[in-house]
Design brief:
The structure holds 2 protein chains of 2 kinds. Chain A is 78% helix and 0% strand. Chain B starts with a helix and ends with a helix. Chain B is 78% helix and 0% strand. Classes of the chains: A mainly alpha, B mainly alpha. Chains A and B meet through α1, α3, α4, α5 and α6 of A and α1, α3, α4, α5 and α6 of B.
Chain lengths: 310, 290
């Protein structure tokens, strides 16, 4: 009798244990399914873009798309050379980088090497606010504030122009460059700085000859990340840069970027299945490839050169 | 001697100039923030009244309002959180606590950081092809929020992972030592400990969902909606798209309306962000004692 109870108890506890393990396996499976959503997203992005893009290339030759200098899919006669859009994107990205990179880096040096703790504690949240403002608000700012100023100084400027969009885009990216570069600089060991000061260096010399070179991988990573954001940014250029795709070096003219074009088509009522409709997938594919390459390069730099001094 | 002296003075001057330049660079961000907010308040305030909040879009600036856009944004945010938070947290738990440290895990992790760098408009194109056309959801709130879910998922996953990593190993091991299973440890030890961090990430993701414009334009949110959304299948507009539409009109009155819309949008966003920062500060103070 007593033996039997003990046996039952063991049996019961084994059953319970088994139930727990089954539950555990079930939960493992559910969590795995959730994790696969993100992989499926990537697969969906790539297949959608690839399918529609290959359909697009049945109507338009790859050669025309990659080398043509005219982009007029919405007008007759239609031309499908994507270079003007790529050129517009690269110009805006380069100009935005000219604003964001020096200012962001200088701001990071100030925060990491010069600023008293109290200043740091007030400035960082404010920069976070700046980073959290929606891009459409920056677009409004470009169109209603920066463009009039540029046109007052340089009257030949067109109402929609690449310069205004680029400047505001650059301003938008400053907090990103600043905070990521600062993180990299803060990770530089104190002892290296102290060695510099002990040799009689000024703070400027310590910052530029010790801290920045040591933190270089993180700093470069922040630049690349900012530039890839600039390539993909949409609302500022859609509002302020205009809708006239062209190959030009004059930032005072109206241009169009890849993202700006996708918005222009989406705003209109282009019928599903037409060549015009398929162009947004082909342009989107280009956009996806450019940013993907930049992101992979970024991860490579971070992995390859990180944490030598830890 | 003279040369050395000159060199000393030169270094000293460089140091001073550099200090000023770095300070100005840092101040620039804040000055721009002040100008931006000031300009928006200045041109938007006169349009901001009760009629504007509760009114419907109109061809006449004096009658126009943003009520459908406000409701659209709320619907969008609610559905996006509903879809993205469970999946995001589950993914983070899987990667941090369950997944074996193998090749597959590395692939998923790399994939997530790559997804975080995909331009938002590409998600819009995906949403157009998969949700609007493929699943035939039409240009509805549901299609929009599913698109937005995919967009904010990496944000939630990464911030949840960071929150989970702050849980000390010792208390996890104590739990395992008492015979707890993985899920018991995760649900009773890890998640409660990481909750404030997860909440912060969720708030930041929802503010991203409210502010995003481009993917919803591609999915087909309309600028002109004359009725309030009634359910997930309704056509819709959101605050940023209404602002975009008003900004791109040539008449000055509509630019004023856009500014008023921005004030409403920023008020929502800043209170969300302030709440997130408050949580983070409280949380950081709390964990120092451990």
């Amino acid at each position: 009798m007593a033996k039997n109870t003990a046996g039952n108890e063991i049996k019961n506890s084994l059953i319970k244990r088994k139930r727990v393990i089954t539950g555990e396996n079930f939960i493992h499976a559910v969590l795995f399914l959730a994790a696969s959503v993100s992989v499926l997203t990537t697969i969906a992005i790539v297949t959608t873009l690839a399918m529609e893009t290959s359909a697009f290339f049945k109507d338009v030759s790859i050669k025309e798309f990659m080398t043509g200098l005219q982009w007029t899919p919405l007008l007759k006669p239609q031309h499908f050379g994507v270079l003007p859009l790529v050129f517009g994107t690269l110009m805006v990205t380069a100009l935005a980088g000219l604003v964001a990179i020096p200012v962001g880096l200088a701001s990071a040096i100030y925060l990491s090497e010069y600023a008293p703790e109290r200043v740091r504690k007030t400035v960082k949240p404010l920069l976070e606010v700046l980073a959290g403002i929606p891009t459409v608000v920056y677009g409004y700012f470009a169109l209603t504030f920066v463009t009039p100023i540029i046109r007052a100084i340089l009257p030949q400027t067109e109402f929609f122009n690449a310069l205004s969009a680029s400047i505001v885009l650059g301003i938008m990216l400053i907090p990103m460059v600043s905070s990521l570069s600062e993180d990299a600089m803060m990770a530089v060991p104190r002892s290296l700085r102290e060695a510099g000061f002990a040799l009689g260096s000024t703070r400027y010399e310590v910052a530029t000859k010790i801290v920045v070179p040591v933190a270089m991988s993180g700093i470069v990573a922040s630049f690349i990340l900012a530039l890839s954001r600039a390539v993909g940014e949409t609302m500022i250029v859609a509002l302020a840069a205009g809708a006239s795709p062209k190959v030009t070096l004059n930032p005072l003219e109206s241009i169009q970027t890849m993202t700006g074009y996708i918005v222009q088509v989406s705003m209109g009522d282009t019928p599903h299945g037409t060549v015009e409709y398929k162009t947004i997938f082909a342009v989107g594919m280009g956009l996806f490839m450019i940013t993907l390459i930049m992101n992979i390069f970024n991860q490579f730099i971070v992995k390859r050169y990180r944490a030598v001094y830890k | 001697m003279k040369a050395a002296n000159r060199r000393y003075l030169w270094r000293k001057r460089t140091e001073k100039t550099a200090h000023v330049v770095f300070f100005l660079a840092n101040a620039m961000g804040i000055v721009v923030l002040a100008i931006l907010l000031g300009q928006i308040l200045l041109s938007g305030c006169q349009w901001l009244d009760w009629q504007f909040i509760t009114g419907f879009p109109s061809r006449f600036a004096a009658k126009a309002g943003i009520w459908p856009a406000i409701l659209g944004s709320l619907w969008m945010m609610a559905l996006t959180i509903l879809f993205s938070v469970p999946v995001g947290i589950a993914t983070a738990i899987y990667l941090e606590e369950f997944a074996p440290k193998n090749f597959l895990r590395t692939i998923i992790q790399t994939n997530i950081s790559n997804l975080a760098g995909v331009p938002s408009i590409v998600y819009g194109i995906l949403g157009l092809a998969v949700f609007v056309r493929g699943l035939d959801l039409g240009r509805s709130i549901l299609a929009g929020s599913l698109t937005m879910t995919l967009l904010v998922l990496p944000v939630i996953i990464i911030s949840t992972q960071e929150a989970i990593r702050t849980v000390p190993d010792s208390i996890k091991q104590a739990s395992y030592a008492l015979g707890a299973t993985r899920w018991q440890t995760v649900s009773r030890i890890v998640l409660p400990y990481a909750a404030p961090g997860i909440l912060t990430g969720t708030i930041l993701a929802s503010s991203r969902a409210i502010g995003e414009t481009a993917p919803l334009i591609t999915v087909g949110a309309m600028a002109y909606v004359s009725s309030v959304p009634e359910g997930p299948m309704s056509r819709f507009t959101v605050l940023p798209i209404q602002i975009f539409n008003w900004t791109s009109r040539p008449q000055a009155d509509f630019v004023g309306l856009a500014a008023a819309g921005i004030i409403v949008l920023l008020a929502v966003l800043l209170s969300l962000n302030a709440f997130a920062i408050y949580l983070r500060n409280k949380y950081q103070k709390g964990s120092e004692g451990l």
